[in-house]
Description:
Helix content: over 70%
Radius of gyration: 19 Å
Number of domains: 1
Distance between the termini: 14 Å
Order of helices and strands: HHHHHHHHHHHHH
Structural class: mainly alpha
Amino acid sequence: MTIPSMLRLICLAAIWGGSFLFMRISANALGPAYLMEARVFFAAVSLLLVALYMKKKVNFSAHKQHFFIIGFFNTALPFLLFAYAAQTLPASILSILNSTAAIWGAAIAIVCSRSVPTLKIVMGLICGVIGVFILVGFDQSHLAQGSGVAMLAGVMAACCYGIASNYAKNAPKISSFDNAHGSMWAACLIILPLLPFMPIRVMPDLQISISVILLGVVCTGLAYLLYFRLIEDVGPPSALSVTFLIPLFGILWGYLFLNESVGWNTAFGALFVIGGTMLVTGFSVNKILNSNRKEQHEH
C-alpha cells in the first residue's frame, strides 16, 4: 500500500469514526428521522455537485428498484437505527457495534447459501458475539439508563449492512459512484414520510447545525468518494481494513470531545469484535502485503 493510499485509509477511518460523534451531538435534539434526513440530503447534494463537475449522469429511473433496495438496507434503515441508539449510547460503543457488520454479512451468507462454515469463521462469529455481550453486560451505568434497546438497535443496524453486502453480490452491475449517489436520493425519499411522526425536539443551535452538515457532507458524501477511490487503488481486501480502524477513532473522538470514559469493557469488547471481524473476513496483513507486491509487479 502506497503512502497516499495509507493516508486515505486513515482519513476515512477518522471520518467514519467521527460520524458517531456528530450523531451523538445531534440525535437527542433533532430525533432520528430529521437527523438522518438531513444527513442523506446533504450527502446527496454533495454527490450531485461532484457528479455535475465530473459530468456524470445517474439513470435513476432505469435502476429505481435497485437504488431503493440499497437505499433502504445500506442507508435509511441502519442510519435511523444508529441515530436512535445515539440518543443513549456513547460514540465509542456505537463505532464498535458498527464493526460487527462484516460478521453479520458472513453469517447471512452462510444461511443463504446453506454452506458449512469453516472453523475460522465459527471462531470469528463467537468472538463477535462475546464482544457484544462484554459491551452490554458489564456496563451497568448504561443499562440503568435503558440502553438495552439502543444496543439492540445498533446491532440491527450492523445487520442491515450485512444484508446489503449480500444483496450487492447479485445486484445489477452499476458503478460504485452511481450506487452511492442513487441510493442517497432513494434514502431521502424513504425517510421523508417519517418526519411528521418524529418531530424535532429542540431547534438546532450552531454546534448541532455544524455537526449535521459535517455528518452529511464529510462523513457520508466525502467518505463514500474516499472509500471508492481506495477500492480502485488497493482493492477491496485492503480497503476492508478500514473496518478495524473505525472503532479506534470512535473511541478517541468520544474521549477527546465528549469526555466519554473508556472502561475495560469497552476496550475488551472492541478487541473481541475486531478480532472476530478479522477471522470472519479472512483479513491477513501478509495477504495484503503479498497482494500489493503482486500489483506493483504487474505494473
